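Backbone shape codes:
***
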Amino acid sequence: MTARTIEQHDVNADLLDLPVIDLISPMPGFPENRQFVLVRLDENGLLYSLRAVDNAELRFLVMPPAPFFPDYAPEIDDEAAELLGSPRPEDLLVLLVVTAGDTAAHATANLLAPIVIDRGNRKGMQTVLSGSGLPVRAELAVAG
């Protein structure tokens, strides 16, 4: 990962000491927040918090897709790639926004609109994979 992650017990550490991810466009509904840091929430690296630098209360639960969706391979369009700085596919970090349920078994991931981050320049964006037919709320299932 490009952004250094910190353990859950260090969550109150000064977020400004972490590498900042600059969102090219804000997350829907949060126009004022474009700078985030990635905070690891578990020791296995399955769950992260994407925390706003300027608003400690704003955070998105995110995860890498591979442990739960091993065949997930989103294709971003040329415009999105250009906005990110035209990175090579292997330079991209893909994260899925997770919606917590009443229990862990009821949590879902947004496959339609992943967050894509260029590991080199730390520019990121949430992109909608229009026409893909992917769900906004996919149930999590451990791969294997």
